[in-house]
Amino acid sequence: MAKPLTNEEISSALSDLDGWSHKDDKLNKEFSFENFRDALAFITRIAFEAEEQVHHPEIFNVYNTVKIALSTHDAGGKVTEKDLKLAKSIESLYNK
């Protein structure tokens, strides 16, 4: 079972993740794109990375907006290192 991070550990880690927040036991961020196609392409890139990491985010999409929420099911729905790792990967995909 993955170990949940403390609020202090999460706050410290978020200083390196621009625009991410910690709310309702999840890491959250909203991404905006020029159009629906770009938003869906981003979701597809996330899907491939999530499969590689065997860690799957909650993804919400409306037109050109993608909202991501990360938590770890086997840690009771809390934030773990797995979430931070995937958030960093998602950031690198967005900044390509």
Task: Give the class from helix and strand content and strand pairing.
Answer: alpha+beta
What name is given to the CATH topology?
A: Gyrase A, domain 2
Please identify, by name, the CATH architecture: 2-Layer Sandwich
Largest sheet: 4 strands, antiparallel
Could you give the distance between the termini? 33 Å
Contiguous runs where pLDDT drops below 50 for at least 5 residues: none
| Integer tally of domains | 1
Q: Any idea of the CATH class?
A: Alpha Beta
Radius of gyration: 13 Å
The residue fraction in helices comes out at 40-55%
CATH homolog superfamily? Transcriptional coactivator/pterin dehydratase
Shape: globular
Write out the strand line-up for the largest beta sheet, numbering strands in chain order.
Answer: 1-2-4-3
Order of helices and strands: HEEHEEH
The fraction of residues assigned to DSSP E strands is 15-25%
How many DSSP-defined strands?
4
Given the structure, what is the number of helices?
Answer: 3
EC number: 4.2.1.96
Organism: Halalkalibaculum roseum
Family: Belongs to the pterin-4-alpha-carbinolamine dehydratase family.
GO biological process, one term: tetrahydrobiopterin biosynthetic process
Describe the structure.
With 96 residues, the protein is α+β, with helices and mostly antiparallel strands. The protein has a single domain, classed as Gyrase A, domain 2, CATH 3.30.1360.20. The chain contains 3 helices and 4 strands. It has a 4-stranded antiparallel beta sheet with strand order 1-2-4-3. A hairpin with a 2-residue loop joins β1 and β2. α2 packs antiparallel against α3. It is globular, with a radius of gyration of 13 Å. The termini are far apart. The model has no long low-confidence stretch (mean pLDDT 96).
